[in-house]
Amino acid sequence: MSFETYFPIWDQLQPRQQRLLLDSLTCRTVKKGTILRGGSTDCAGLVLIRSGQLRALVYSEEGREITIYRLFDGDLCLFCAPCVIRSIQFDVTIQAEKDTEFWTIPSEIYHGLMAQSTAVSNYTNELMASRFTEVMCRMEQFMWKSMDKRVAAFLLQEASIEETLELRITHEIIANHLGSHREVITRTLRDFQAAGMVKLSRGLVTILDREKLEALLK
To answer: What is the DSSP letter of 196?
Structure first.
């Protein structure tokens, strides 16, 4: 599918704005693990995902990671361009979780469209509010939810994303997503295994009892 199909407010743009946008686009493909944005001064442009998966993460003072939200096919990454969204005042790193193909919209082009088009401005504000809600929910989990609830929620989310109960993921990666230590994740997963909820093997977590994991969240 083309850019026009993925950009949700394409039909609300004027023909000259559509041409300007199409002429400015670049398409890239990056491998899993690639850092698209790694600092507060990075402003390469906005990213619209054609296929793949990205995650936005921040680092604690101790250097631990925590995922604040994830992006999938058709999602627009605003945090890739803090010079456009000037209210972004903290460092966000954007990393490819899978091989990812995306379009990059130059910052100056998008910023100009925001000034010209109410549709683009409204869409951007709504998307920013949605991302802020995601971040706040994640921070709430980080601060108030017990580790067993956080791990259970992550496993269920991962199963939904990958559409399988056999999750090829390491304890270290789970720890990075949740802002925890690998040893804490290992201990929690072993408790889950003892309760018959999961089965652990090298680089693999198999969900055996989805209902029990869901019950932990209630």
So the answer is: T
